[in-house]
Amino acid sequence: MKFNPLSNDHLKELESMVSPDRFSTGVSILDLHAKDQSAHSACRPEVVLWPETASEVAAILSYANRNRIPLTGWGSGSSLEGNPIPVCRGIVLDFSRMNRIRVIREEDFQADVQPGVIYQDLNEKLRHTGLFFPPDPGARATIGGMIANNASGTRTVLYGSTRDYVMRLVVALANGELLEMGTRASKSSSGYNLINLFVGSEGTLGIVVEATLRLAGFPAEYSAAVATFPSVQAAAQTVYDLKRSGLNPAALELLGPECIALMNQVDHLGLNVAPTLFIEFHGATTSQLSEVLDTARDICEARGCTDFRPGLGRAERDRIFKARHALGEMIQHNHPEHKILIMDVAVPITAYTELLAAMQAEVAPHGLIHYTLSHAGNGNVHLNIAGRRDDPSEWALVQAVSERLVMKAIALGGTATGEHGVGLGKRKYMPTQHGAALAWMKQVKTLFDPNGILNPGKIFPE
Ligand SMILES: Cc1cc2nc3c(=O)[nH]c(=O)nc-3n(C[C@H](O)[C@H](O)[C@H](O)COP(=O)(O)OP(=O)(O)OC[C@H]3O[C@@H](n4cnc5c(N)ncnc54)[C@H](O)[C@@H]3O)c2cc1C
């Protein structure tokens, strides 16, 4: 695609579409919108705009489309695959000023929100209603960014991913049209599901300006358990057993011993340094959860679990999962001299043990620093591999190891990305994973965005 660089006339016109305080070409602002949280290289946009209304977004898109100017949406910039990096420069639309929760319909379990709402803020606002929005990527992500990446997290094993919570969307298309899709009914079998096209499309088909989200009832009681195992394989097999048991864990996370050692060091958790499962259950009463924990203990011990620490109550659950959510940042801080490649793949649960074994076999012989953390209940693994910043050959090795493991995950019937999206880093796997379906995806892209202005350089291989 050939794009036009922004001229002074373009900039003047764009400034007039918002207002001077919602327009910036300042270098520090451009730099703040040049890079996400991944190891991918930064690229400065030419201008950042902060729209406040859907009609402003639509007008800017229409102008960008007519003038062949690339445009990329920006939520919090917390992506891990380069998804919001404006690699073709142009305009970045920052949604931090479109952060209103328009209405909460408690009785219908729904909320209408603007795209810049941070999901933790929504849950804080919902606290008194007994409802919550379950997807929990951990970082302070926006609803727009979560919809674009189909984000998920520790509770996805029970509650599903962002896709399962989007009932209705209003999207600004590249031609400036505002398109509403979906319904407020809790089920529908009417027509094509366009919402599912937009969720996970990383801002390449249209820009989300409003969403109606499905909410879930807050669990009355919580329990959590930490179970340690003699090997990663034993822990992985237990994941399968727990899923088969019908106990319905609300979180089922597997952490390698190196993760536990780091969490102990930073958060003084005093956990055994061994392959570990963090398990969470939600229920109506503590007596019910107590029985669930007893059964979970039996299942873990049958696989050789060496220590099972059950805990009841919200505080115990929060203590354990707070450290889990902070783990990604702990790893970065612990290795300032290294770049961290965060590999995100998912496989069918029956292939999970084989994938973990392949990961150990790949990284161990090279002595690479690595951390295995996994939303195990979904067969979703993040292998974080460190490569020294001043050693290009080590970084090339890290990338080669990651590439072999992503191909292995696809060969096992899985996906190159379980939750972080394609962005820049996973584009090269699209032909292998999707085969002939990729050409149909390309046609869908062309239908919605014929000039290719929306987040160019993402999803499709170069
Ligand atoms: C410490 C840490 C832990 C994480 N853990 C998880 C995890 O457990 N699970 C998980 O899924 N992710 C995780 N992530 C990744 C990240 O938080 C998610 O991908 C999140 O959805 C990104 O949201 P954001 O608001 O930061 O969006 P951004 O990163 O700003 O943008 C994401 C994508 O959305 C597009 N976009 C933004 N706004 C809009 C809009 N209004 N309309 C259309 N497109 C738009 C952007 O162009 C980009 O393609 C983690 C990140 C960090 C830093």
What does this structure look like?
The strands form four sheets. This protein has a seven-stranded antiparallel sheet, with helices on both faces. 35% of the residues lie in helices and 21% in strands. It folds into four domains: 8-96, Uridine Diphospho-n-acetylenolpyruvylglucosamine Reductase, domain 2 (2-Layer Sandwich); 97-217, 2-Layer Sandwich (Uridine Diphospho-n-acetylenolpyruvylglucosamine Reductase, domain 3); 219-329, Alpha-Beta Plaits (2-Layer Sandwich); 335-422, Alpha-Beta Plaits (2-Layer Sandwich). With 462 residues, it is an alpha+beta fold. A hairpin with a 4-residue loop joins strand 5 and strand 6 (110-113). The chain has helices at 8-17, 27-32, 54-66, 119-126, 143-149, 156-159, 194-198, 232-244, 257-267, 286-302, 314-334, 352-363, 392-411, 430-434, 437-448, and strands at residues 23-24, 47-49, 71-74, 91-94, 101-105, 110-113, 131-132, 166-172, 178-182, 207-214, 216-217, 221-228, 251-255, 276-283, 307-312, 338-346, 370-375, 380-388. The protein is built from 15 helices and 18 strands. The structure holds flavin-adenine dinucleotide. Flavin-adenine dinucleotide is lined by residues 36-37, 72-80, 83-84, 95, 115, 137-139, 141-142, 144-146, 148-149, 151-153, 202-203, 207-208, 328-329, 419-420, 455.
